[in-house]
Amino acid sequence: MNDLSVQMTAARTLLRRFYGYDSFRAAQEPVIESLLSRQDTVAIMPTGAGKSICFQIPALMLPGITLVISPLISLMKDQVDALTEQGVPATFLNSTLSFAEAQERLKYIASGECKLVYLAPERLESENFRRKMAAFNVSMVAVDEAHCVSQWGHDFRPSYRLIAPFIAGLPRRPLMGAFTATATPEVKDDMVKLLKLREPRVYVSGFDRPNLSFAVLREKNKDAFVASFVQEHVSDAGIIYTATRKNAESLCDFLRQRNIRAGCYHAGLTDEERKEAQEDFLYDNISVIVATCAFGMGIDKSNVRYVIHYNMPQNVEAYYQEAGRAGRDGENAQCLLLFSESDVATQRYLINRSGEDEARIAYNLSRLQFMVNYCHTTECLRHFIINYFGDTAFPRECHNCSNCLSAKSKVDVTIDAQKVFSCVYRLNRAKINASVVMVTRVLMGSKDKRLLALGLDKLSTYGLFRSRERGEIKELVQRFMAADYLEQREGQYANVVLKSSAYPVLKSEAKVYLNLPQKAPSRARTPVKEPLTVDTELFEALRVLRKKIARQEKVPPYMVFADSALRDMCAKKPRTLEAMRQVKGVGDLKLQRYGQDFLACLMANSH
Ligand code: ADP
User: Fold this and answer.
1) Average pLDDT over residues 250-273
2) Is any atom of ligand 1 closer than 6 Å to the C-beta of 478?
3) Whether 150 and 283 share a structural domain
4) 25: CA distance to ligand 1 center in Å?
5) Which of 14, 306, 417, 447 is least enclosed, having the fewest CB within 10 Å?
6) Exposed/middle/buried for residue 332 (C-beta within 10 Å: 0-12, 13-18, 19+)
7) What is the DSSP string of 546-591?
8) For residue 242, is pLDDT > 80?
9) How far does CA 81 lie from the centroid of its chain?
10) Contact 46, 207 (CB under 8 A)
11) Alpha-carbon torsion 570, 573, 578, 582, what sign?
12) What pLDDT does 434 receive?
């Protein structure tokens, strides 16, 4: 065996001992191998894919310590608590610690026992702190959420720019690892450049999360839908994202009035209020949290069973990151997006008022259009997302999204397409800025003043869809956009133009088919794949025990055992500690600390 395979065998032993897993996931293996070969490494993996293990295991194997740069102080304690629960020697240093606590931790680091030190990047501002770190044997620096270094990312943090000079000031350059779920080329290039990585190996793992099901729903009464969904999933944890603070508060009130234990989280609340809501959610005291996008980065709660977007988010990256907070434990979970036309205007408004420069606004508007397209595509939703991230070879049907699961058939819509394309063509030729609304108005034969003033009622396509409803026409235009026949150019005004695939249709050289639902889409389109069913009574009994232990230990229940571990216990029903050790997620320390209690609970509740 060569040196690397010996190291990988040792890595797997540590995985079993500390984490209770038998093998690395396919995407983890090459990243760990690369770091163990002492190569700077960039790993781009979707949320929930298991990034942390990729640096934690090498950290346990390398001499000295690994510094983990992590953006959220509020979550550092959780991250370190979770590691401590597993027996991994780790600590954190941030501004929440008193002088005496910090001294204590520095002593622990100096003792040589500690392997992982979590830091907030702001710490690097202090010269005194940098000097202290330089005195330790730093083998590796793992930059978590590394996209924060880039202005193009959605969470730019200027203090991430301090990392490269800090590394340059260390007596010996450590190995570098950069980890993120954000994969746009600009962000990737910035990570390499601004963190000064040396010939890094870059691993972009597949973006599919097979255990997540996706749905886009058009619900007239979103509040009622959410309330009944939450009530039907009362023992499951879920996140509901809204576009604005106002929406978050009013929806949360609506749920509470229906006796649903819901929490609220947004940037307008005090630190204290936010902390309380977050802890209530992590500790399973409440099952639902209604939040703006301010919530979630670094949230490791693994048993989130659904993420509902009450409003359409601003871009596909943000959507996939937020939706991806469901099902991190690998169990089935649902991601629902409740679309309404007004969401588009809200997001457009937010982008235009963001105070960013013109180029950035145009870029953000173009990304918004992809999100709108996602909500209108009649093809597989998963295919759409994964294709957006650059993997064009993903199968065209996933059989687990609302489009794949709805009863639909291929409909020849060539005539409609010709009418729409011809309308767009004429508006473009007349040099009229044609928004989707304007195209719709012309086709419906609107008497809108601006339209009449421009003489658009003289166009031959004026009123071609007179007998149809406005919403139906608009939806049709959006669907052609999602199907890549039209695109919206963003300038001062939005302008719909034809793409090259539209011309053969206009010339009757190509036909257009859309997968259209046979019946009115609604709840029937919610994907059916729910979490795996197990003996519910037994599962509940284990959950109660887990909660009791979590309270004693003062950690969130999912840190005692993930849902997936409890489910595996229900399936395997171990009767001895040795058998319990085979359960997924039961490492040595947890077996020793909780094994007996869970065995007793299994015996008492198995029939
Ligand atoms: P990310 O940081 O990429 O979002 P995490 O590191 O939080 O993901 O891991 C997500 C979940 O997957 C965690 O519950 C973790 O314990 C689990 N996990 C990671 N690696 C494995 C593995 N090899 N086998 C089984 N579960 C794993």
Assistant:
1) 95
2) no
3) no
4) 9
5) 447
6) middle
7) HHHHHHHHTS-HHHH--HHHHHHHHHH---SHHHHTTSTT--HHHH
8) yes
9) 23
10) yes
11) negative
12) 86
The CA–CA distances, whole Å, from 489 to 342, 371, 481 equal 20, 15, 11
Residues 287 and 261 in one domain: yes
User: pLDDT by residue (tens digit) across 55-68?
Assistant: 999 999 999 999 99
Q: Is the pLDDT of residue 329 over 90?
A: no
Q: What percent of the chain has a predicted confidence (pLDDT) above 70?
A: 96
Residues 549 and 499 in one domain: no
The two tokens of residue 156 are 């730019």
Tell whether 319 and 247 lie within a shared domain. yes
**Whole-angstrom Cα distance, residue 440 to residue 494?**
14
Q: Is residue 524 part of a domain?
A: no
Where among 486, 517, 548 does a domain terminate?
A: 517
| Cα–ligand 1 centroid distance for 50 (angstroms) | 3
Tell me if 301 CB under 6 Å of ligand 1: no
Query: For the residues 157-186, what does the mean pLDDT come to?
Result: 92
228 pLDDT above the threshold of 60: yes
- Check if 426 has its Cβ closer than 6 Å to any atom of ligand 1: no
Whether 530 is in a domain gets the answer: no
Q: Give the global pTM.
A: 0.79
Residue of 110 and 47 predicted with greater confidence: 110
542 lines ligand 1 (CB under 6 A): no
pLDDT tens column, 295-314: 887 677 888 999 999 999 99
Mean pLDDT of 402-430: 90
Q: Is 300 in the pocket of ligand 1 (CB under 6 A)?
A: yes
